[in-house]
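Researcher: I'd like a candidate sequence for this fold, 257 residues long. If you have to choose between options at a position, lean toward the conservative one.
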């Protein structure tokens, strides 16, 4: 009896790997081919551009003043100081209204009560003794007629106010002047952008983006002189000028000449 012998031959493992890798390589190739048009289009989206910040200022005379004034009243007790202060403050407010200032332009501000101490025995390990109280009450006044400002300051002092915290000059409606400053800021940006583009051998195309930085920022130019007098003369004042500023960022397309 003859027994037939068979030898099994295993397939080439490298060839098998190549056969299995072929679909993967083909898939990758197809994917890159599909992506390549998108990559080309992304490159086409690049737009040469230039971004410039333009700034401008417009000077204008203010038409309104804001005054902060106080009445400070001492007393041996807090109620005594408060009573004296309330009486004096009422007289000041009445005189302000009599000078033609409307109630909407008068606002109470800065009310406080402070104890006064005897500090003569400091360093003796003793707490300072309260010897009285000071009451402070103030008002903020909007003066819309600057011709009356000097006279009003004198009236405030004569009626009992013994502190004036400060005076600021403002523009009641700055929008018109702000728009003028904005236009000048845009013109400033364009002039500088055109200069740089020309130097680079290009010219400006369409505006791609525009934004504004900040807005109305009054910068006082004039000095205000005040001399409190217990007399009928009006306090001398100098109004000066305020400056309205505008700033814009603009991005233009750059086009080859």
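Model: Candidate sequence:
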């Amino acid at each position: 009896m003859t027994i037939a012998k068979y030898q099994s031959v295993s397939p080439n493992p490298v060839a098998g790997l190549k056969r299995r890798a072929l679909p993967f390589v083909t898939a990758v190739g197809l994917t890159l081919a599909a992506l390549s048009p998108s990559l080309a289009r992304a490159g086409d989206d690049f737009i040469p551009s230039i971004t410039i910040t333009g700034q401008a200022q417009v000077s204008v005379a203010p038409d309104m003043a804001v005054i902060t004034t106080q009445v400070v009243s001492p007393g041996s007790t807090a109620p005594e100081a408060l009573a004296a202060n309330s009486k004096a403050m009422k007289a000041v407010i009445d005189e302000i209204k009599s000078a033609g200032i409307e109630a909407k332009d008068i606002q109470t501000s800065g009310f406080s009560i402070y104890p006064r101490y005897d500090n003569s025995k400091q360093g003796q390990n003793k707490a300072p003794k309260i010897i009285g109280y000071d009451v402070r009450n103030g008002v903020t006044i909007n003066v819309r007629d600057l011709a009356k400002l000097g006279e009003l300051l004198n009236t405030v002092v004569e009626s009992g106010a013994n502190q004036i915290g400060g005076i600021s000059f403002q523009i009641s409606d700055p929008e018109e002047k702000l728009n003028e400053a904005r236009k000048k800021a845009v013109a400033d940006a364009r002039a500088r952008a055109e200069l740089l583009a020309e130097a680079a051998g290009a010219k400006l195309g369409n505006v791609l983006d525009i934004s504004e930085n900040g807005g109305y920022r009054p910068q006082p130019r004039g000095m205000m002189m005040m001399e409190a007098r217990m007399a009928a003369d009006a306090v001398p004042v100098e109004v000066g000028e305020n400056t309205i500023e505008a700033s814009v960022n603009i991005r233009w397309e750059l086009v080859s000449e």
